[in-house]
Amino acid sequence: MPFRANSQDGLMVPFFRSRPVVTAETHHILHWIPAVALFGGTALYLAGRATFLALSVRCVRPEQFLAPAAALLLLPVGRYLPGLAALGLLTAFLAVLLSYEALTRGRSDAPVDPAES
Question: What is the pTM of this model?
Answer without folding.
Answer: 0.65
